[in-house]
Structure formats: C-alpha cells, structure tokens
Amino acid sequence: MADNKHHSALPVYLLTGTFLLILCIAVCIGILIKPYEKAQTYLNILFMDQSMKIAPSSGLNGLVIKENEIETTPVSDIPEDEQHFYDNGEIIRPAFGEQYAVLKCDDISLSVPVYWGSSTELLERGACQASSSAVIGETGNVVIDAHVNTFFADLDKLEPGNIIVLYTNYGIFTYEVSEKISFLNTNKKYVLPTEDNRLTLYTCEAQVLGTSDNRIGAVCTLVSKQFYQPAEGANP
After folding, report:
1. 148, 163 in Cβ contact below 8 A?
2. 2 vs 6, 10, 13, 16, 187, CA distance in Å?
3. Are 188 and 52 in contact (CB under 8 A)?
4. Rounded mean pLDDT of the chain?
5. Residue 91: how many CB atoms within 10 A of its CB?
6. Which residues contact 19 (CB under 8 A, 6 or more apart)?
7. Distance between alpha carbon 60 and the CA centroid of its chain, in Å?
8. Which of 24, 124, 205, 236 has the most C-beta neighbours closer than 10 Å?
9. For a pLDDT cut of 90, what percent of the chain falls above it?
10. Would you tell me how many other CB atoms lie within 10 Å of the CB of residue 163?
11. Sign of the dihedral defined by the CA atoms of residues 80, 168, 92, 188, in that order
C-alpha cells in the first residue's frame, strides 16, 4: 500500500521539479533580456547601410562631441513683444558630433537632444541626424533616428496630427505627423533626399531578443519655420 502511494506521488514530484526549473530559467532570461538587447543594438549601430551615414572611426578617435545650450521655450510662452521671427533666415551648419537641436513632442512626452552625424557614442547621448540629410531649416528631408530601448522608446505612439518641434540656436521649426511608417532596414525610400520640407523619424522595431530588421517611425510635414535672424541681405 505504501509503495502504491509512493508511485502515485512520483509524477507530482517530477512535475513540480520541472515547473520550478522552467520558472527559474524564465526569470533568468527576463533578467538578461535588457542587457542583451542593448548590447545587440550597439553592435548593430547603423540602422541603414554605411552609405546613409558618415561615422568616424571606432571609439573616440577623431570625434569631438560638442554640447550646446539650446533654448526650448514654446513660442506660445514667449511674450508677443519679444517674438521676432523671420520666415527665411540664417542657418548655422553644425560640425560632426555637435548637438545642434532639441526635439520635443508633448503628445508623447518626448524631449531629446539631436546630434549631427551618427556614432555609438552619440547614440548613447541622444538622437542622431543622418549627415546625408538636410540641415534643419534647409529644403529637404531631415532624417533623425535613435535607439528604441532609450530615447525613441515611445516613437510607436506617434499618431497623425501630433506636433513635433525642433529647437535650434538659429530658429524654431514645427512639424505635424502626417504618416506612420514601417519598412525594412534595406529600404531607403524614407531616408533619401526629397524636394519638399519634411522630417523623418525612425527607430528599430522593438523585439524581445536582438535587433529587428524592421524600422518604424513617422513622416512629418513642415508647419512653420521661425528664424531668429533674417537671411543675409534680406530686409528685416
């Protein structure tokens, strides 16, 4: 009788032990996911191929990172008698590795510094703008990306109609999200130069392990350019 009870309890012991083992493995995987994801993201640092961005040599060799203080007061909060803006103005072209803008979107509580060019070090500090794209304020496609597990974690929450503002030391540039996009990393459709004024934001599609080949983001239409100084030779 005792032997029968022992044999009937054996499957229970085995199932309990198996369950506990699976639970321990699941917990360990959960703990390691984030570090692994971050490491993989940095190993696959270029979202597009090498021709889309100009990155300096590995490490800090030749890279000088410059931080700038940039005013980010919304136009609506600036007294009317201090609002001296111009539709056309002087653009201050940034140096590689220079922070020359702050990107803000109140709709998704996003505020991130924008650096000109891309490298591992710069992507750790903020969003990066492809140096093959138009400088903010120029006619063309302003292409900006950042890591999905850091600064652009909520980029997928953008919806058409959301407002994006780029603050620089030479002006304020406002865009409206017109289209959410999804594309493969080999598809350059959304990052190529354009003849219209647009802002393209993108990041990797989030996944549990590794880095996805899919990119998600938004295309934004220019709403207004507000330069602090008039263009050279223009009447104030």
Report:
1. no
2. 6, 12, 16, 21, 69
3. yes
4. 82
5. 17
6. none
7. 21
8. 205
9. 61
10. 14
11. negative
- Model confidence pLDDT, tens digit, residues 95-134: 999 999 999 999 999 999 999 999 999 999 999 999 999 9
CB 128 within 8 A of CB 121: no
Pair of tokens at residue 205:
């599609």
191 with 162: CB under 8 angstroms? no
Cα–Cα distances in angstroms (integers) from residue 89 to residues 81, 86, 230, in the given order? 19, 6, 4
pLDDT digits (tens, 9 = 90+) for 147-162: 999 999 999 999 999 9
* Tokens found for residue 147: 């890591």
Q: Is 97 left (phi over 0), alpha (psi -120 to 50) or beta?
A: left
Cα dihedral across residues 165, 149, 141, 137: positive or negative: positive
Length of the chain: 236
- Which tokens in the block code for residue 127? 């969003």
Alpha carbon distance 128, 137 (integer Å): 16
Judge whether 117 and 133 are in contact, CB under 8 Å. no
